[in-house]
Amino acid sequence: MSFFSMICCRKGIDRKEKEKQQPTWRIFSLKELHSATNNFNYDNKLGEGGFGSVYWGQLWDGSQIAVKRLKVWSNKAEVQFSVEVEILARVRHKNLLSLRGYCAEGQERLIVYEYMPNLSLLSHLHGHHSAECLLDWTRRMNIAIGSAEGIVYLHHHSTPHIIHRDIKASNVLLDSDFQPQVADFGFAKFIPDGATHVTTRVKGTLGYLAPEYAMLGKASESCDVYSFGILLLELASGKKPLEKVSATSKRSIAEWALPLASEGKFSEMADPRLNVVELLKGESKQKLSELENNEVFKNPQFAVCNDETSGGIEESSEIIEEEKDPEPVKEKETEQKSPQDG
Ligand SMILES: Nc1ncnc2c1ncn2[C@@H]1O[C@H](COP(=O)(O)OP(=O)(O)OP(=O)(O)O)[C@@H](O)[C@H]1O
Ligand SMILES: [Mg+2]
């Protein structure tokens, strides 16, 4: 090999190593984000959560972004911002929302993500997309499997292991093919190597909290698995995790589903927007009869928290958020021009 080709070869290796080491996210200036979102125009608003508002934007290269802008600066919000950025910068998986970067100038805190054209699962199940019935059974299965893969990656393949602590329909975003990406790592926790759980203040969303976590503050992977189970029931039934049954009380989706499941009334449980007759035949029928023989379905009272427990959850934590109805948002067209384009 000639000296020249050795140099070229070395250069190639250097470039490849550099590419590998280079983070895929960057720091944005506030000016750039102002320009991308048309000065955080109301028309660009995609939604709002506990942290602040989320805006659609377009960068100078034409790529679309979602920008989450902190509402009010506080120490708590600063922690949430840092946790989210630190975790998202570490993880890369097809079913976890990608971080494009962040901006921290003065008291402004902004997180820049990949834009998900089909917004959140919440908007399709209970929000302004729900009447369009875009989620057939195949899409719902893909959403369930993809979300599970994202969670498995956090629990088992990232170092240290991560628990999300806020798995819910508004935190499952859908790309242009309705493939799911789990989002929102502001409440996430690292599980140190060898530890079975961490004891912590309870955070999360009512309706999705595992009873042992809500009562004892013991956070482990199983908290996410419980929330994911609630999400599965929501996907299959189209019902909300907590439903108002009177002016003063709410019923959890598990309380609603278990008696029906134990009586084998699966067609009553299925979302009426789904045509499920075929699912109740053939292979699925065999699986359903296996489920019917499961202990949980035979004794539904064991599996559901009673009312005192739910009351305890609410009182024991000031940080738990209640799932809001999604506010109506305008869908952003892919061909929408950037503000600079006029
Ligand atoms: N990357 C994104 N692409 C498209 N839409 C997004 C994106 N991120 C968020 N959104 C939209 O913005 C809404 C608000 O998101 P946000 O995470 O702030 O609040 P939330 O999930 O509803 O509540 P919480 O604060 O409890 O997580 C989402 O429901 C979703 O519709
Ligand atoms: Mg969210």
Automatic annotation (TrEMBL):
Residues 307-342 are annotated as: Disordered. ATP binds at residue 68. Keywords: ATP-binding, Cell membrane, Glycoprotein, Kinase, Lectin, Membrane, Nucleotide-binding, Receptor, Serine/threonine-protein kinase, Signal, Transferase, Transmembrane, Transmembrane helix. Its main location: membrane. The keyword Secreted does not apply. GO terms for biological process: defense response to oomycetes. It is a single-pass type I membrane protein. GO terms for molecular function: ATP binding; carbohydrate binding; protein serine/threonine kinase activity. Residues 326-342 have a biased composition (Basic and acidic residues). It is found in: Cell membrane. It holds the Pfam family PK_Tyr_Ser-Thr. The keyword Lyase does not apply. InterPro entries: Kinase-like_dom_sf, Prot_kinase_dom, Protein_kinase_ATP_BS, Ser-Thr/Tyr_kinase_cat_dom, Ser/Thr_kinase_AS. Residues 40-297 form the Protein kinase domain. Residues 315-325 have a biased composition (Acidic residues). In the C-terminal section; belongs to the protein kinase superfamily. Ser/Thr protein kinase family. This is Protein kinase domain-containing protein. It comes from Hibiscus trionum.
